[in-house]
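TA notes, week 10

Several of you asked for a full example with nothing omitted. So below is the full record: structure tokens for the whole chain, then the designed sequence directly under it. When grading your own attempts, check the secondary structure regions first.
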């Protein structure tokens, strides 16, 4: 939470009671400035104005109460840090008692006042600061330690204290009505007779009329000079008067100072004279050091004003009241204040006892007129000189210790209501006494006669129905002040795009907008309006000599923004037109303008409205619902309403980012800036001057940093992201209730559905645009919104991450990941690529080996999730590293288990009395368990047969061991397998298995991709073993010379294949035909779709036969094996008969060809036709073959590890990258016997660069045994060039060709005499390379 903290938790022992809160609201209602619609407002706004009768909805009251509550929490934290609770079993980490108990016998140092204040301010500024308070904390027994620096010293009389004063303004005390909504939870119950209140007010005015006088006090309060380390940041910031006031202005501190002031006044003059030298020494030391002495304002006697003018006297309290005061004077301070707050002569806020509900200034004894008493308007007066009881004219002070009822009474006419923060107030002694604007005069003008009439645009005492003049539309004359007591604060009831433009223009023209760090600081209209909207709203012209209304407009606009944006219903209604939420561009524009005039108010108000997102839906509140007891007295929002509110808040966050506008000469520049800034921040950087990641101006980078580190904006983002998973948890509870109740309501849409409906830019033609923007603006907005949403999600993740891969799923971090996951699933509709979701910051700080292994045993819950459950935030090379770390860990474990077993067998065999025969039998039976490697002995003339025979019925623990291949050793080939022999084996085995003549796979003539043959004659176990070969290659980190369509990898990962883009690479001709059907227009020149005579059939070819099957609809769904819509009731695709015995019950597919024509394909059923055709092509026709292949593929791979991979990434793991970049290969090549500057090396790269793709693959295969580049690029390819002698005419090296050690990926290259010889010999070696001499 920020500095403006809300009230403490009700369960805390230090929390206020409900009565205290109502007293504070009642007092603030008396003193807060009321917002009224100024007279120069356009006529259209008058119909939108409404009165506010709830004090909690008044922005000035709300702001003051927040500051008050923050002050109280800071004081409680200071007590907790310095004193503790005193309970032995305390477990609150920040409590001094807990720290002392945890330290044991070790001495523990208590925090000093500055340190405690620093920590307390930080703790009170966090989210939900009440949770950190110790539940055992009690009221302090002593005043705050910060008071020890204040000293009461005699004051030297320099002038006559008695000066005349004009009669005070009585109407200020009678212009504030009692809130009509002060019953229930909105305020103190309104009781009493109206006539009595009227008589009380009249009698008060009669009492206030005589002129009184008072004298100045004979003392002042100064702060003792203390030694301070000027190099300390904490001492120079948190040791200032502004922060000390957080402790000085608490009830306990003010009561202590009032008692000290009373005691000082009661001291004999002789004792006081002994202390007169102390302030003189203090003053002399300050003058000698040429430093200003910190002083407080003088304590004013209760009988006079600051100018020596007399104050009105109120009626004395009753005898019963005096007895009550005397009784409570012996109670502890906190108890006395909680039960019956005391009056004080200097208090501006009064909280009277029931049943009198009205907090009128007239009932406060010696009330000061703000127009004449307060010499420092808008500033917080120091409590050091304003807290003690003084003389009450003819009546002396009570014997009990007088106390200010609560600190808000001292601040009601100071910083709380005059837009002066507590941190920015200068010392009062540096101010000059000037005429100033009182609370009742808001236009900034003042007449020469204090008692004369004031010229106000809207008088504070004016009635609600006369807030604006009904005069001429051309010239407006301000109305005189009215004495009507029923005046209420006003606000607009709704906002619209036109109203937002108007109020923002007003504040920018008047120069009253909030100072902030967002860029640009102000926004002017840059839209083209809307054809259906009326004239532009403009202010009326005032008559000559009329006052301006800057302050009134500021109050009214702030009140309007707070009233509407903090109410979820009003916020949604304001930005809805024709039952539909504003389009994304218009909503962003409105938020952009409002965040440039009052960003703190906008973000805080939306934060308050977002609190309603945590209220459960009505389904959970129904009486029959099992969860109804958990959520009582909660106002609920439907998912549709919650989604609209969340969309409004998210657009406000988007608007906080720096505005990047399109350049007409280069429209792509702005888009590239958004992408580059997103990449920079994904690395956790604020600047990227090197340009390695992206190069953008420093000013833009710093502007991004200011926006994404804004405390209020981050607080709003955290609440929104937390609400995402909360709403989904509510949906899960509703689903459980529906399972128990068969008559339950239909499930609601997801909470993010309204947002994605706004951001569906692919169907933007159906969106109703409220405002019209240029084409370039709309094109840029399509990129801006999703990119900045991802940036805000990353900003919250980076700020909340503690370095652990396990994070809270129900917190802001988990909500940000949920938003990114939802956007990732809709990335095509949002026009986003995979690269936009990556956050390199996390991968750079996580362990690449232990972290993914620990993730395998992590159980996903709602409270705890793992970063690897969201693999889209990592780049592909990082995911491949994690995937291979998991495989290597399993391989190492299997190897170590077999090694350990072999050691135990050797020990048993050496120590036992077994015979030699028995030992051999034991060793043979345990050979499979004790073998360290999976060894395959393959003949080159029967590669696939030997592979199937040796892999058949192997145990899983054997398959998980490191692979060793012996290829062709029976025919005399020598090979030492360090990877090259394995590559050669898989190349030969899969080339034979995927050969169309083998009968298991077919190859598309255009794409050259392999796919299963529908109804293949081959047995299913062969497909399973082919899948096992692929699994072994991936498990051992090898790439294969195969090409499968992407649909296969989607099905292996359990993802649906239901879009045309999923089959475009494997069946380009079919995809093209289906795309033409999808885009067919019956009203076009080509005629109707029925005229093409397309039937609802699926056709294919197998073994020279043309097969046609009528397609049947299937229920959607996804099973565990990637068969994404397998309907058990659906007829299986018939298989070709493999033997004569199978022919009777396995008829050939062509025997089921339909005799009658199927139903035609038309516009109304073309979408179903396309979906069913894709399903029959990729699933139904090849279901047995694919299921067998998938079983073999999953044999060696951990199922959970496959979730790290995308279909494209899995395809790269299996097939590698076919594009070979020779310049990259040269960059990572290594040399032995040569260097880069050698003539032979220069000639070699010059020749290779001119090779075509086929020769490049042959070169790579010749050296590394694979013609594919692994995932990650050439930096993962080992390519060594070693000198292999020198060829010359005299030596014996003539005619020698280049050779290679594929095991070591080394090219043995002789030094030839010229370039042409090198080109000839290298070409001969690449064209005739087959088999191994020694590899």
């Amino acid at each position: 939470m920020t500095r403006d903290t809300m009230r403490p938790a009700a369960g805390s022992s230090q929390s206020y009671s409900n009565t205290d809160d109502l007293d504070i609201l009642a007092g603030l209602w008396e003193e807060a400035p009321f917002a009224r619609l100024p007279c120069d407002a356009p006529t259209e706004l008058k119909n939108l104005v409404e009165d506010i009768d709830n004090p909690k909805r008044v922005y000035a009251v709300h702001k003051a109460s927040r500051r008050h509550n923050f002050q109280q929490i800071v004081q409680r934290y200071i007590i907790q840090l310095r004193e503790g609770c005193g309970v032995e079993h305390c477990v609150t980490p920040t409590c001094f008692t807990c720290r002392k108990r945890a330290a044991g016998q070790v001495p523990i140092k208590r925090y000093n006042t500055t340190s405690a204040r620093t920590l307390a301010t930080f703790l009170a500024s966090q989210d939900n600061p009440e949770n950190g308070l110790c539940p055992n904390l009690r009221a302090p027994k002593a005043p705050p330690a910060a008071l020890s620096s204040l000293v009461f010293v005699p004051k030297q009389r320099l002038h006559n204290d008695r000066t005349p004063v004009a009669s005070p303004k009585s109407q200020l005390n009678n212009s504030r009505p009692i809130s009509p909504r002060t019953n229930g939870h909105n305020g103190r119950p309104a009781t009493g007779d109206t006539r009595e209140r009227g008589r009380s007010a009249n009698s008060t005015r009669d009492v206030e009329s005589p002129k009184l006088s008072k004298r100045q006090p004979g003392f002042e309060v100064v702060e003792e000079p203390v030694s301070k380390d000027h190099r300390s940041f904490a001492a120079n910031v948190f040791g200032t008067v502004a922060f000390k006031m957080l402790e000085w202005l608490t009830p306990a501190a003010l009561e202590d100072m009032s008692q000290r002031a009373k005691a000082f006044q009661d001291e004999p003059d002789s004792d006081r004279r002994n202390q007169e030298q102390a302030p003189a020494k203090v003053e002399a030391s300050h003058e000698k050091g040429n430093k200003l002495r910190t002083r407080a304002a003088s304590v004013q006697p209760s009988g006079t004003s600051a100018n020596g003018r007399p104050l009105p006297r109120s009626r004395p309290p009753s005898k019963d009241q005096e007895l009550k005061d005397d009784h409570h004077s012996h109670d502890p301070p906190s108890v006395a204040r909680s039960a019956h707050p005391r009056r004080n002569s200097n208090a501006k806020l009064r909280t009277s006892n029931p049943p009198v509900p009205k907090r009128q200034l007239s009932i406060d004894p010696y009330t000061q007129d703000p127009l004449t008493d307060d010499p420092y308007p808008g500033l917080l007066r120091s409590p050091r000189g304003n807290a003690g009881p003084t003389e009450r004219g003819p009546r002396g002070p009570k014997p009990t210790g007088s106390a200010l009822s609560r600190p808000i009474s001292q601040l009601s006419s100071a910083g709380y209501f005059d837009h002066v923060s507590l941190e920015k107030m200068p010392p009062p002694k540096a101010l000059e006494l000037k005429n100033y604007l009182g609370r009742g005069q808001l236009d900034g003008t003042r007449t020469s006669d204090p008692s004369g009439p004031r010229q106000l645009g809207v008088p504070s005492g004016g009635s609600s129905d006369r807030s604006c003049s009904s005069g001429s539309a051309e010239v407006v004359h301000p109305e005189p002040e009215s004495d009507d007591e029923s005046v209420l604060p006003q606000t607009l009831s709704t906002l619209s795009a036109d109203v937002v433009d108007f109020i923002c223009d007003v504040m920018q023209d008047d120069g009253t907008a909030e100072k902030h760090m967002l860029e640009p600081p102000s926004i002017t209209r840059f839209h083209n309006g809307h054809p259906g909207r009326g004239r532009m709203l403009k202010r009326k012209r005032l008559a000559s000599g009329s006052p301006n209304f800057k302050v009134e407009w500021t109050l009214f606009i702030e009140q309007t923004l707070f009233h509407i944006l903090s109410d979820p219903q009003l916020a949604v209604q304001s930005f809805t037109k024709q039952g539909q939420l504003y389009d994304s561009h218009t909503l962003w524009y409105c938020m952009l303008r409002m965040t440039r005039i009052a960003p703190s108010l906008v973000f805080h108000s939306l934060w308050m409205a977002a609190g309603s997102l945590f209220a459960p839906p009505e389904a959970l509140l129904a009486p029959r619902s099992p969860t109804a007891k958990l959520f009582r007295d909660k106002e609920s929002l439907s998912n549709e309403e919650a989604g609209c509110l969340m969309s409004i808040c998210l657009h406000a966050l988007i608007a906080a980012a720096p505005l990047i506008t399109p350049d007409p000469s280069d429209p792509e520049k702005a888009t590239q800036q958004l992408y580059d800034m997103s990449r920079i921040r994904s690395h956790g950087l604020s600047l990227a001057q090197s340009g390695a990641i992206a190069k953008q101006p420093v000013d833009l980078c710093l502007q991004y940093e200011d926006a994404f580190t804004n405390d209020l904006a981050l607080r709003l983002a955290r609440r929104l992201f937390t609400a995402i998973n909360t709403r989904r948890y509510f949906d899960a509870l509703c689903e459980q209730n529906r399972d128990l109740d068969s008559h339950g309501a239909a499930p609601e849409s997801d909470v993010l559905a309204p947002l994605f409906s706004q951001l569906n830019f692919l169907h933007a033609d159906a969106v109703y645009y409220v405002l019209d923007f240029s084409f370039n603006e709309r094109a840029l907005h399509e990129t801006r919104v999703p990119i900045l949403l991802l940036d805000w999600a990353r900003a919250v993740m980076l700020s909340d991450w503690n370095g652990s891969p396990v994070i809270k799923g129900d917190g802001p971090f988990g909500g940000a990941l949920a938003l990114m996951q939802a956007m990732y699933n809709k990335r095509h509709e949002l026009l986003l690529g995979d690269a936009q979701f990556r956050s390199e910051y996390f991968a750079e700080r996580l362990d690449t080996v232990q972290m993914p292994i620990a993730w395998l045993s992590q159980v996903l819950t709602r409270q705890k999730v793992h970063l690897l459950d969201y693999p889209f935030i990592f780049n592909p090379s990082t995911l491949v590293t994690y995937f291979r770390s998991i495989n290597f860990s399993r391989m190492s474990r299997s190897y170590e288990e077999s090694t350990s077993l072999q050691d135990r067998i050797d020990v048993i065999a050496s120590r036992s009395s077994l015979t030699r025969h028995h030992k051999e039998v034991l060793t043979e039976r345990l050979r499979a368990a004790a073998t360290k490697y999976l060894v395959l002995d393959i003949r080159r003339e029967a590669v696939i047969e030997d592979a199937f025979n040796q892999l058949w019925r192997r145990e899983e623990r054997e398959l998980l061991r490191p692979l060793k291949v012996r290829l062709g050793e029976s025919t005399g080939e020598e090979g030492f397998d360090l990877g090259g022999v394995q590559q050669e084996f898989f190349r030969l085995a899969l080339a034979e298995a995927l050969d169309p003549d083998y009968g298991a796979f077919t190859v598309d003539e255009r794409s050259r991709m392999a796919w299963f043959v529908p109804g293949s004659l081959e047995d299913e176990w062969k497909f399973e073993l082919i899948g096992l070969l692929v699994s072994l290659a991936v498990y051992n980190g090898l790439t294969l010379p195969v090409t499968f369509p992407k649909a296969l990898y989607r099905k292996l990962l359990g993802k649906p294949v239901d879009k045309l883009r999923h089959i475009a690479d494997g069946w380009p001709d079919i995809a093209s035909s289906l795309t033409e059907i999808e885009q067919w227009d019956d009203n076009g020149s080509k005629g109707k779709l029925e005229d093409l005579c397309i039937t609802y059939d699926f056709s294919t070819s197998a073994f020279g036969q043309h097969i046609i099957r009528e397609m049947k609809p299937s229920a959607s769904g996804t099973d565990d094996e990637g068969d994404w819509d397998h309907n058990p009731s659906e007829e299986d695709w018939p298989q070709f008969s493999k033997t004569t015995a199978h022919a009777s019950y396995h008829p050939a597919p062509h025997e089921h060809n339909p005799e009658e024509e199927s139903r035609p394909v038309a516009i109304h059923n073309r979408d179903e036709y396309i979906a069913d055709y894709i399903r029959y092509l990729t699933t139904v026709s090849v279901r047995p073959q694919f299921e067998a292949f998938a079983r073999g593929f999953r044999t060696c791979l951990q199922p959970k590890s496959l979730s790290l991979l995308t279909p494209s990434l899995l395809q790269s793991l299996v097939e590698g990258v076919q594009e070979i970049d020779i310049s990259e290969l040269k960059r990572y090549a290594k040399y032995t016997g040569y260097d880069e500057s050698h003539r032979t090396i220069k000639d070699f790269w010059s020749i290779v660069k001119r090779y075509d793709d086929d020769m490049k693959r042959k070169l790579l295969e010749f050296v590394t045994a694979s013609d594919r580049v692994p995932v990650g690029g050439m930096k993962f390819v080992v390519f060594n060039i070693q000198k292999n002698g020198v060829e010359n005419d005299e030596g014996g090296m003539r005619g020698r060709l280049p050779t290679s050690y594929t095991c070591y990926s080394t090219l043995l290259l002789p030094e030839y005499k010229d370039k042409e010889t090198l080109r000839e010999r290298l070409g001969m070696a690449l064209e005739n390379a087959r088999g191994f001499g020694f590899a």
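The mean pLDDT is 74. Use that as a sanity check on your answer.
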